Amino acid sequence: MYILNKIIVLILLLGLVACGGAEERKRKYLERGQQLLLENDFDKAQIEFKNVLQIDPKSADGWYFTGKTHEAQKKYREAMAAYNEALQLDEKHHAAKTGMARIYLFVGVTDKAMQLTAEVLEQKPGYADAKVVHAGGLYRQSQTDQALSEVRDVLTIDPDNLSALALMSGIYLDMKQPEQAELLLNDAIKRKDSDELRLLLVKLYDDTKQFLVAIPHLQHLIQTHPDNLDYRNRLAIHHDAIGQLAQAETVLNTAVDELPDNMSAKISLIQFLAQRRDIKLAHIELDKFIQDDPDNADLKLLSAQIYLQNKDLPTAEKILRSMIVTYDKELPAAKARMELIRLMLRDNKRMAEVKTELATLMKENPTYSDGMLLRGTMALNEGRYEEAINDFRAMLKDQPTAVPVINLLATAYLSSDQPELAEEQLKIAVSLAPVNAQVRIELAKVLQLQQKFPAAIEQLKLAQKLEPKSLAASDILYKIYLAQKDYDSAKILTETIISQYPDVATGHFYKGMLFQAQGNDRGSIAHLERALSISPLATEPLNLLTRAALSTGQIALIRNKLQAVIKQHPEHIVAHNLLGEVALQQKQFDQADKIFSEITQKNPTWWIGWRNLAQSQLMRNQPDKAVAIYRQSISASSDERLVIYLALLYEQLKRIDDAVALYDEKLKQAPTSASMNNNLAILLATYRQDSASKDRALQLVKKFEVSDN
Predict the structure, then answer these.
(1) How far apart are CA 407 and CA 441, in angstroms?
(2) Rounded CA gap, 149 and 147, in Å?
């Protein structure tokens, strides 16, 4: 019994020691991670926080600091996920909730940020970080006085609060009071110097074009962080900005001398010499580096790039081919071959060589991302959407946060009539790059195509907050207003654009379009002519002006206008086509045929010329000639609209077998085409009575079960 009691006590003691050891290790990992985070060593900090979570997966602080590290690296999606984990474990984790609010504010979702900070401040009224985010929200809502009052409250209690100082200096700058922002930051530096404050001050000077005044602060940062090449490069840029090229060169030369093992320092110097000084001098310096390190592939590749920059393509190509032979199947050979391919892409006549070299590159390096990106992009441009999708998806397995690749994948999905998948990808892109207005605009385009107007408007409003004068956002927003017949909002938007951009055609074009949408063709003409006076080659205003003139019987006006455009710009294909359409509307068939025939000869891939030439035959009741024209057009152009027009004509002529055969033939080339799959299914279901045809029709539309199209 005595022995048993001793064993139990020993087990309990061991358990206590083990628990104590785990807790102690967790505490040390957490402290080390926080220190590394302060030092901006994010990779090492993340390892420490990962260690914390391996010991205790339910550590709310472990998740919080993981999120904070992600946020510092601008990985907002991952940061939000980590903050959410912390809040799931501890709903009163004020720092995690404030972190989420800060990201919401950063991406423009101000209401959500205000809600979260209000919840934190209700439970902990003096929590400085939440007060700063709340003040930022007030400022976003144009409540400047309240925002300043709130941020001053924070600085009264904690005058060195970096977030509060950054916000207040930013508000002063927006209020055109840069001297107040400068005073604020300089006082803070006198009290407690830090890299972050110096960088805030440098940013202030950059924003106000005071590059000379920023220089001493960058010099101070270099003295305290001599191994930081970024500070040295920024100092060189500042000297360059005020015309001190010699000083900029000295900074970069010093970096090379003091950081002899830093290849990036050498590259920065050579690139500066090539771009801002003298290309020959760049070659001289680069040759010295290569003599000192003759086996360095990066320097050889840089040499080829400098020759490319100087447009000495033969020498660059010679160096690259030599590297390919020297390094054979090693990585430097792949880099050289990729650079050679880029060189060849400058000459359209070398596309066959490009494809050969690219095939070799990818055979030897199947996962080489630059090659995969080019191959996918070429496939996308050539309409081989499945191949493009495969390449982009393969890239994203290794680079899941690569927003440009996600955008390309979305484009490929959209081009292959898969808008739902395009939307899914663009939502991922938005979560990864929440302050990228263009990504939000691309998502809005896809939402608009699917008639998801409220969601599209939400994205466009956020994009406009990020880029207040974005014409791209206004374009989609305007079209949505027209689709919803919200003419009042459309009118306000057009007047805003005209006010912001009086010398740009867009606002006047929109106003003309608005008149036409409201059934006032005559009223639209003046605005469309104004748009064309600003942008004479713009096609959309010319299209609408032609429609308005035809509908109001002003044939002479539009014919004279089109002929004047063609006289000044003989290659204006749209003007030629519209002149043909005017002739067609007036039943001047010979003249129309002549114009459309010339268009198809000069621009055989443009579907509209073929469509109109065929329409001219149909208007004269010559369907066989129209069929022949469409057959010819399909050989000349890959545009599937011509296939659909011919199939519809076959259907009208009761030539159902020909229509089915046409779709069968073309679906072999474009199996994912929603339009052709849909149309073939309708033909089979409508005109065929056998069970095999019915079954095939069902299979064709099965893929639409989860589609919103």
Answers:
(1) 11
(2) 5
Q: List the helix and strand counts (H, then E) for the chain.
A: 40, 0
Cβ neighbours of 164 (radius 10 Å): 27
Q: Which two tokens stand for residue 350?
A: 């070398």
For 428, 437, 441, the CA distances from 396, given in Å and listed in that order, are 12, 22, 22
Q: Which two tokens stand for residue 181?
A: 């922002």
How far is it, in rounded angstroms, from Cα 593 to Cα 588?
Answer: 9
Q: What angle do CA 301, 307, 310 make, to 5 degrees?
A: 145
- pLDDT the model gives residue 11: 41
* pLDDT, tens only, 41-100: 888 999 999 999 999 999 999 999 999 999 988 888 889 889 999 999 999 999 999 999
CB contact set of 639 (below 8 Å; sequence gap of 6+): 605, 607
SS3 512: helix
Distance from C-alpha of 467 to C-alpha of 461, rounded to nearest angstrom: 10
Contacts of 545 (CB under 8 A, 6+ apart): 512, 524, 525, 528, 529, 532, 558, 561
Please, what is the Cα angle at 291 between 285 and 294, to 5 degrees?
125
Q: Both ends of the chain: CA-CA distance in Å?
A: 78
**How far apart (Å, rounded) are the C-alpha atoms in residues 83 and 89?**
10
Q: How many CA atoms lie within 13 A of 556 on its CB side?
A: 0
Q: Which residues, given as ranges, of the chain have pLDDT below 50?
A: 1-4, 6-19
Closest CA to 240 of 210, 198, 271, 272: 272
Cβ contact 594:566 at 8 Å: no
Q: Please give the Cα distance from 12 to 91 (Å, whole number).
A: 33
For helices 331-344 and 297-309, give the axis angle rounded to 10 degrees: 10
Distances (CA, A) of 117 to 5, 126, 231, 487, 628: 54, 11, 35, 38, 69
